[in-house]
User: Fold this.
Amino acid sequence: MRPLLRLLEDDLVGRILAEARDVLLRVGVEVHNPRVLALLADHGAKVDRASSRAFLRGDLIDRAVASAPKGFRLHDVEGRETHDLSGRKVHFTPGSAAIRVLDGRTGESRKPATADCIEHAKVVAALPHIHAAATAIVPSDVAEGISDSYRLYLSLLHCRKPVVTGAFSIESFAVMRDLLVAVRGSGSALAERPLAVFSCCPTSPLRWSEVTSQNLVDCARASIPTELISMPLSGFMAPVTLVGTLVQHTAETLSGYVIAQLASPGAPVLYGGSPAAFDLRFETTPMGAVETQMIDCAYHEIGKSLGLPTQAYIGLSDSKRLDAQAGLESSMGATLAALAGINSVSGPGMLDFESCQSLEKLVVDHEICGFALRLARGIEPRDDFPAAPLFEELLREGHLLVAKHTRRHLRAEHCVPGPAIDRANLSRWREEGALSLGERASREVEKHIRAWTPPPLAAEVRREMTRLMEAEARRAGMGRLPWRDE
Assistant:
């Protein structure tokens, strides 16, 4: 039996949905994009152009939910399926888009550069429990106008896994789409075997900017999957109660579904978010707070009640170092996400309120993800009945270390962590250097970087990607890129 986490009664889910629909009808949603407002008006939404506000009827919402896929799949750069984002299948990906990195060599938090993006992609490539890559680090050594496409370019060239990404400008989308098409070979092939998911973020409360709403429409029309990242802050930019925050999250997310499905019925979308329970003492957005994690798991239940695939920023920490707090918050979040069955879990490697990435923490979080995935599989019999013959063998041999039953089921039954996790006895731990968690994780990071091999992209594909990226650099006024594929 697979364990299941539930936080909401069915009638409460229904009430939250009903209230969110009423909010969208009576209060509406601001859309600061005349093209998207026109799209909504053309399909029957009441639009007040003076206030840039659209009021969404229930039938528009119902049609959007009905046309949205109940799941979709992702594929790696070779076209092999890696994700089935449906049901309660769980996949982990690093959190995005950090503006700092925790340097494992110096212990200092600093602005990242191209080399950090490349090292991150190489480490992600080596971690089997991290199922997708992400444009997780924003490099500071390129023009701001090309940082979105540049980090996608680096990820595709250094990691074969599908990538969670996003654009902070309307102009960035075209070249990012073209990079993905270059890998896949054509737009139709990309639609058939998606390689990336774009994050599209409404602004709380109840607002879509020109950039994010246009990104959502552009992705839908290109059949590129999106994840809707609503970010209500309980007690600040959302009601202080968890139910009130869920009503707002639901309204903002449903408004995104309406936009995406009107732009292109059947567009693949994840019902996601990155809410937080605002800490009034420090004026911060704690992603490791238990209330934040409860909101994540609860809105996942709401999404699943509609039959939709889900995403959440959960399994990350607000600590500034790889310490006990980082382990506490990240492991609790990853475990809750796995038990809830959230389809796409963003967060591994992140520290400091979604602003910092750590390769050492990513390695540790990879082990946490493995434990959480094992827990979510639950307990089931594996040739355990009848039990008497196995116990007769145990009594006869004095152990079951080499028994057929042990050899048959050991790997499937037990999640054995890598060297970052210490399971040696005290004397052996001392003999092997008495290394701390951070030291062991650093060794693993260096090992993965040394052992990295490039994704199997054809030379002409790599040349086309570099051509596209260099053209973007020139458009942004840069003479050359900090790194280019040779």
Remarks:
- The two ends are 51 Å apart (CA to CA).
- The mean pLDDT is 97.
